Amino acid sequence: MTIRFTKMHGLGNDFFVLDLRAQDVELTSERILAWSDRHRGVGFDQLLVLEPATQTGVDFKYRIFNADGSEVEHCGNGARCVARFAQRSSGQSDFVCETARGLLTLSVLDDQQVKVAMGIPTFKPSEIPFVADDAALNYNLPLYPDQASQIKVGALAIGNPHAVVWVSSTAAAPVEELGPILESHPRFPNRVNVGFAERVDEHEINLRVFERGVGETEACGTGACAAAIHGMLTQGLVSPVSVHLPGGTLQIDWQGMGEQVIMTGPATFVYDGELSE
């Protein structure tokens, strides 16, 4: 069996793109784990899958699987990559795609940057999901069972759940120590992506993200949105915000509660390949 795929990345967040509109491949967690192995497989942060649309007026269905085989709701860097992938085969520049959390609008710009309407952020605990009696901009979470150490985090969802921790320096942030603890914190029943953000000025932040099911990545589109939005509400940020990640910069535009958040950034082809199984 030959499986055709494309390797892409969005600011170093790398993807295995699989078009199931043109081939039939059974997806299993074991198969995804084998493909994602960076020593014995292809290696990637996420698997992006295009499938035939199930709704009228929609171009395709878009699914995301982490390297550990778990399926997730949203991936902003991945959305930019599937837009450029779909453009290559169709010649279109504008797309509407289905995701687990609703429809996304994608536009490939003349300079090959991609603009994505990422959805409307929510702070409601039941929608994140997050265990809390009431919605708040910040929560104090115990880090360990003894309750002695706590950390202040913001909690919101941009299609998938995010925790935002503000730090004085992302270079010195304890990402490797606190990322796994917060990712699997019992207050986040579906686990959570954890962003460590540093305010530079009212239009710029630095950000590192520990993604659930993956670990720290070069970039995270929904994480950039979450940090920028939380910063507009709590850190005096003003839209648009340039979010500097290890892999590069994304621009985030948000006009306030109830409005779509717009992300703009690059998407890059690496190679086309085939796997024999």
Automatic annotation (TrEMBL):
Its EC number is 5.1.1.7. GO terms for biological process: lysine biosynthetic process via diaminopimelate. SUPFAM superfamilies: Diaminopimelate epimerase-like (SSF54506). Substrate binds at residues 13, 46, 66, 76-77, 160, 193, 211-212, 221-222. This is Diaminopimelate epimerase. The record marks 271 as: Important for dimerization. GO terms for molecular function: diaminopimelate epimerase activity. The keyword Cytoplasm applies. Homodimer. Pfam families: DAP_epimerase (PF01678). Belongs to the diaminopimelate epimerase family. The record marks 162, 211 as: Could be important to modulate the pK values of the two catalytic cysteine residues. Catalyzes the stereoinversion of LL-2,6-diaminopimelate (L,L-DAP) to meso-diaminopimelate (meso-DAP), a precursor of L-lysine and an essential component of the bacterial peptidoglycan. GO terms for cellular component: cytosol. The gene is dapF. Keywords: Amino-acid biosynthesis, Cytoplasm, Isomerase, Lysine biosynthesis. The keyword Cytoplasm applies. The active site is at 75 (proton donor), 220 (proton acceptor). It is found in: Cytoplasm. InterPro entries: DAP_epimerase_AS, DAP_epimerase_DapF. It comes from the Bacteria. It catalyses: (2S,6S)-2,6-diaminopimelate = meso-2,6-diaminopimelate. HAMAP family: DAP_epimerase (MF_00197). It is an enzyme of class 5 (isomerase). Pathway: Amino-acid biosynthesis; L-lysine biosynthesis via DAP pathway; DL-2,6-diaminopimelate from LL-2,6-diaminopimelate: step 1/1.
